[in-house]
Amino acid sequence: MNVITDPDAAARERVAAAASGAPVDAGHALTIGVFDGVHIGHRTVIDRVRALAADLGAKSALVTFDPHPAKVLRPELAPELLTGLDQKLELLAETGLDTVVVVPFDRARAGESAEEFVDSVLVGCLGARAVVVGEDFHFGKGRLGNVELLKQIGAHAGFQVYGHGLLPRPSDSSELTGHTDVDFEDLGSAVSSTAVRRALTVGEVALAARLLGRAHEVRGVVATGDRRGRTIGFPTANIMVEPGFAVPADGVYAGWYVLPDGARWPAAINIGRRPTFYEHAEHSLIEAHLLDFDGDLYGRPARVRFVRRLRGEQRFDGIDALRAQLDLDINAARTLLREE
C-alpha cells in the first residue's frame, strides 16, 4: 500500500509528469473520511471502492486526516480516538487498498473551500475517477461540501460520485455481558465510531469487537509501577497510554497482550484505581497479568486487546480476599481465552 503524507507535493508531481508527456496512472476510485477504528462499516465502503476501481481499471484509494479534525476545530469536544495513525494505517493495509493519502489537518486546511480540496487532493493528487462517501458526508470550510456538491464538481472534473448508506447496527444485544445497564438503543441505528466508543465506556468490549470486526486494542509503553502486584504473587505490566485514546471502563477483562515481537499472550487485565490499596487515586491504570509468563517487559512497547469483561472493579477487605478473587479472574480468563 502506497502512503502519501504530502498530497500537495504529490499533486505537483502528477501535474509535472503530465506536462512532460510522461505516462500518468489511470487514476483512483476513492473514499474520504476520518475512518477512526476502521470498523466494519468503514470496510463495506472500502470494499465498494475496490470493486469500482476494478471495474474502471483504476487503483483504489482512501483519503484520511491527521490529526482528527475535531482536535483542531473544537479540541474540547474532540472524541477519544479508537486508533492512532500507525494502527489505522496497519488496518487499512489489510483491506487491500492501493493508496492511502494522509492529509495533515491544520487551520489552513480547515479554511480551504470544498472546491479547493477536491481540486488539490482528489483530482490533483489522485486523479479521481469515482468517489464514494457517506450520504451525510460534509467537508471543506464551514462543512459546505456534501454529496450534491461533489456530484456537481465531478460532472466537470470527470469523476462519478456515489453516496453510501450507513451499515445498520446489529439488531440484537447478544454480545452484552450483563455487567452494565447499557441501553442497546443508545448505540444508534448504524455501525459507527461513536457506537464503538459508547460500548467501551460501559466496558462492553465484546460488543465493541463485534462493531469493529476485531478486538479493541490499546497501545502504550510498560512503565515501572509500585510493584505491588509482584509482592502479592500477581506481577503485572503497567501500560502507559497517551491521553486522548479510548480505554474501556474500569474493570477486569480477559484479553491478549501482544509482545514487541508480535507474539500473542493470554492475560487478565485490570483497569482501575485499585481501591483496595488507594482511597483517592487520581486516575485509572491499565495493568496486565500475563498468564504463565516470565520475562522483563519494562520500557518496552505493549499492545493489549480486550476480549471480554469479567467483572467491575471492587474494593476488598484485605490481601487474602484480593488474592482469592484474582485467582478466580485468572482462571476465568484462561478458560475463556482457550476457546479463542
Describe this structure in words.
By secondary structure, the protein is of the alpha/beta class. Helix 1 (7-19) crosses helix 6 (114-125). The chain has helices at residues 7-19, 40-56, 69-73, 85-94, 107-110, 114-125, 147-157, 193-201, 205-212, 228-231, 319-338; strands at residues 2-4, 28-32, 59-66, 99-104, 128-134, 160-164, 216-223, 237-240, 251-258, 264-272, 285-290, 301-311. It has a six-stranded parallel β-sheet with strand order 1-4-3-2-5-6, sandwiched between helices.
Write the layout of secondary structure elements.
Elements: E1 2-4, H1 7-19, E2 28-32, H2 40-56, E3 59-66, H3 69-73, H4 85-94, E4 99-104, H5 107-110, H6 114-125, E5 128-134, H7 147-157, E6 160-164, H8 193-201, H9 205-212, E7 216-223, H10 228-231, E8 237-240, E9 251-258, E10 264-272, E11 285-290, E12 301-311, H11 319-338
Parallel strand pairs: 1-4, 2-3, 2-5, 3-4, 5-6
Antiparallel strand pairs: 7-8, 7-12, 8-11, 9-10, 9-12, 10-11
Helix pairs in contact: 1-6, 6-7, 8-9
